[in-house]
Structure formats: C-alpha cells, structure tokens
UniProtKB/TrEMBL annotation:
InterPro entries: Cupin_2 (IPR013096), RmlC-like_jellyroll (IPR014710), RmlC_Cupin_sf (IPR011051)
Protein's recorded name: Cupin domain-containing protein
Domain Cupin type-2: 30-86
Domain of life of the organism encoding this protein: Bacteria
Length: 136
C-alpha cells in the first residue's frame, strides 16, 4: 500500500494482460444485477476486462476456471479474446449486486458477443469439470 498524507493507495489486483492491439479503446462500465439475476448468457469480450465488486456478491465463471464467488471489495479480471465468460450471476436473493468493469476493446469488434447454443455445446470440454457437472 502506498500512503502519503491522508491518501492511501492499495493494489487490489496485479496481472499481466494479453497483448493489446493498436487502435484499441477503453471503456468503463457499471454493471447492476437485480436480486438473484442470472446475468448475461455465455459470451466473450473483445479484450481483457478488469473489475471490482462494489455491492453484493456474484458468481463468476470464465472458461477453464472453477466458478467462484466474488464479494463486495474484491477484484476480478478476465483475458477476453477467445475465452468464454459463462457466468456473472447475482448470488444475493434479496438485493442488487453491482460491479464496475474497465474493458479494453479490440478495434472494430463489439465488446460483448453472445454465443450461439451450438458453440456453447462445442466448447463444453473447455469448462472447468465442476462447472460441467452443474450445467448438466
């Protein structure tokens, strides 16, 4: 943690992102999930996403990783590109969950692309074994 005077800076996440193409742009989003909402269906992002849960807790699953709970005050990240983002559900049954995301967007590619059912099925072998068991 860096501290000078009354200012404190705490590192929450330190990762090496994938290569960022020339012409990429950055957007910051606030994502708000209603109580018990399943969030977006499986999708991919055109570039890496870095985030932080502001309120509540979410179920977060990225292709190849075990689904995990991320609670308020915790960071998240995903590499984007060809990696599928399967879940970002609100685990709070009676309250909203909110998180912000900083998205690095590849040039001329939509930031979010929803997957067709055929592609979800074809990529099932790439999901973490615990996620495949719950999806059946």
């Amino acid at each position: 943690m860096l501290s000078t005077g009354n200012v404190q800076i705490s590192d929450l996440l330190n990762v090496t992102p994938p290569w960022i193409p020339e012409g990429a742009h950055v957007m910051t989003q606030l994502i708000e999930l209603p109580p018990a909402d399943a969030g977006l269906p499986p999708h991919r992002h055109s570039g890496p996403v870095f985030g932080y849960v502001l309120e509540g807790k979410i179920l977060f699953e990225v292709e190849g990783e075990e689904p995990r709970e991320i609670a308020a005050g915790e960071p998240l990240w995903e590499p984007g590109g060809d990696v599928v983002h399967y879940q970002m559900a609100n685990l709070e049954p009676d309250s909203w969950s909110r998180f912000f995301a900083v998205c690095i967007c590849a040039p001329d590619v939509e930031m979010i692309t929803l997957l067709e059912p055929e592609e979800i099925k074809a990529r099932d072998h790439l999901r973490h074994p615990s996620a495949r068991q719950h999806a059946e």
